Each structure stands twice: as structure tokens, then as C-alpha cells.
Amino acid sequence: MSEYFKGISKIQYEGKDSDNPLAFKYYNPDEVVGDKTMKEHLRFAVAYWHTFQGTGADPFGVGTAQRPWENITDPMDLAKAKVEANFEFCEKLGVPFFCFHDRDIAPEADNLRETNKRLDEIVAVIKDRMKNSPVKLLWGTTNAFGNPRFVHGASTSPNADVFAYAAAQVKKAMEITKELGGQNYVFWGGREGYETLLNTDMKLELDNMARFLRMAVEYKKEIGFDGQLLIEPKPKEPTKHQYDFDTATVIGFLRTYGLEKEFKMNIEANHATLAAHTFQHELRVAAINNALGSIDANQGDLLLGWDTDQFPTNLYDTTLAMYEVLKAGGFTKGGLNFDSKVRRGSFEPVDLFYAHIAGMDAFARGLKVAYKMLQDGKFEKFIEERYQSYKTGIGKDIVEGKVGFKELEKYVLELETVKNTSGRQEVLEAMLNKYIIES
Question: Exactly one of 104, 244, 246, 309 is catalytic; which is it?
């Protein structure tokens, strides 16, 4: 068994006073927060595509990444090497999960039959490696966007052959996810959208996407896969308009087609930014609709209008994200996968460790602050008092459906004045600052 990350041992927790970049400052996996350890709360996962497939290439330059496996030229030997590198990386980092697209773990061949044989070969290697590793599969998914056949979409393609190909690909990916003990299966509609309505039958495309998802639900039940099905919203890029624009749009779509009980959301922070929402907003919308499943843990750049997939280091984002997760009862089958890539200038192998450590520390810190906020209950108390008018009198009648427009008009005609109270936004934001600084 080769060692790919030489000179790097198991990453340890050294505490906030440590200056060691290869040590955790806030993430102590065994520290109990409430009724769970940090490891159980956060359920971190390494994203195969960015960590082991990313090259650092961008539209203006070739890849810069230096990787220990870069001299392996045979595609299948390279795929097997990356399996070993994945488990070594996760074990040294102490991350309990990883996740992948089907085309991340095995290279595509000239036809689906040969491609599936390659997948089977690599899955066997992964299964064998799992026997002696604590690392598990958080979720699998399908790359139905990279190959030129998906130029017009997958389940929303105007070409029925492409729809069929995507279905066959998802079938296989669901099978290997089940075989590897994956706890979720994600649908990310990489090109499920349009560039112009001048050449688009939107109704047919939406109907077909629903047909596709319904087929997936049926096949999940047929093979006995007990994982959670997740949909990952994204507003744009690569298409001008994605059908899974944001959480509210996806929930509306699922309800329209009677699929709302079958799917939850995999929320990505950077996708929230692209949809002109906050990360917290997307998580709250999912949570209040009983649809919060898992999280792609990254952050975007407010000055850039594309998906930068940066490692999460913003403590406001991580705190408010964990605040929503804890309020919703915590993760069940989901977790925090680092759908994040090191910057193009961070090209050395050790940078992969530095970046993950930074993200894990940021979420660990966010977890503790969020837990303290919820334990104190100051924000919840403020909200409860702000909406107190709906607990008695006319407000209570409104909530209980006892009044209509006529009754409300009669009430207002007798009302001398309307008295509002301040929302105290600045006070609450200062309070949040205090929690982040002092907790």
C-alpha cells in the first residue's frame, strides 16, 4: 500500500493557542457539545471531485496542482491510486465520510457497458479498502453534465436518447452507492435548465424531470436502498437558468408533482450566494419545510458572480448554519461535505490538509457558538415576544382561522391606533458578535 501524503501524520487537536497549521484549533472530535460529540454533530465528508480530481485549471490557465499520483498514466491505475489516496487523506484528517460522482472514481470508457465494468472494478477496490477503515460513504451522485452528450441537459434534454442514457447512468450509480453503504444519494442537475426560451419547451422539460425523479424513487424502493434522496439547488451556471434555482423553487416543484415526501435538500452555501440568498436563508427554508438533509460546506465570493467553491472560513456563516442545523434537530443521514477547492495558487499537496483543517475548525467554532446561543435562548425569546400579538385576542383568532375580512374590518374600525415595536436588528447583530467573540 503506497503512502501518498508522506511526512503528514494523523491531524491532532491542539487547541486555540496552537500555531501548528497541521493541527486543529477548535475541532476536537471527541468533545461533547450537548448530547453528541463534535464528530457526531458535524459528520464531515471529503469531496472526491475537488480533492482528488481537481487540477487547479481555470478558463485562463492550465492546472497548477502538484499531486503525488500525477505521474501515473494508465487511467485505471490512476483511479486505483486515488482510492488509496482518498482513504489515507480521510484517515489522517480524521474525517468519517467521503462522497463522489460516478465519473470521479472511475474513468468513462467508449460505451456504458465498458464504463460500468470499470466502475465495478473500482468499487471492488473501495469495498476492500473499507474493510480496514473507519471511513464511510456519505453519498454518491451522477455526473450527468460533463460529457458532450449532456450539452442540452440530462433528464430535461430535448433528446430522448439522452434522457435514457442519464437514467441508465443514475441506475448504476444508485446501485454502487447502495453497495458501498452510502447514506444518501444526491441529484444535482448540472445542466437541467435553459439558455433561451426561444428553443425551450419548459413544460415538457419540467414534466420530464419529474418523470425522471419518480423513476429514481421507484428504483430506490425496488433495490431496497434505504438512503435519503437529496436534491441540490443551484440558480445558474452553467446554464443561464436552472430549474432547481433555490430551495423554495425545488420544494414548489416537488409539491407540484407529488414528490415532496421522497426528497430532502442538499444545501450549498455558494449556491445560496448565486441565488442572492444567504446561506442561513436556504437552510431555514429547507428546515421549516422538513426538507433539510445535508450541506455542501463551502463559501462564495460576493465580488464574483460564479461558483468559486472556497473553503468555509467565515465564522458568521458557519455559526448561523449550525444554528439552523441544531434548531432543526441536527443531521440524521446528512452531514457537511467540503464541496470546496483550494485556490489555484495553493497547489502543493499539503494545502489540501491546510484547507480542510481551516474549514473543520470554522464549523467546529460555529457549532459551539450556535449551541450556546440556543442554550441561552435570547434570540428565540426576542422572536417569541415580537410575535406575541398572535397569542391572544384578534391575532389568536387569525391563527386559528376564526375570522375573515368582514370580522377584521369590524375590529379595525374600532381600533384607535396601530402601535408597532422596534425590530432591534442592530442590537441583535451586536449580540451575535458578542457570542462569536466570547463563546
Answer: 104
Neighbours of 225 (CB within 10 A): 18
Tell me if 141 sits within 8 A of 102, measured CB to CB.
yes
What values do phi and psi take at 367, rounded to 5?
A: -60, -50
Could you give the CA distance from residue 181 to residue 139 in angstroms, rounded to a whole number?
9
Give catalytic status of residue 101 as yes or no.
yes
List of E strands, 120-199:
136-141, 184-187, 193-194
pLDDT band at 1 (very low <50, low <70, confident <90, very high): confident
**DSSP secondary structure letters along 360-409:** HHHHHHHHHHHHHHHHHTHHHHHHHHHTGGGTSHHHHHHHTT---HHHHH
Exactly one of 101, 271, 277, 356 is catalytic; which is it? Answer: 101
- Output Rg (C-alpha) for the chain, integer angstroms: 24
Q: Is 102 an annotated catalytic residue?
A: no
Grid cell 447512468 is found at: 169
pLDDT band of 2, cuts 50, 70, 90: confident
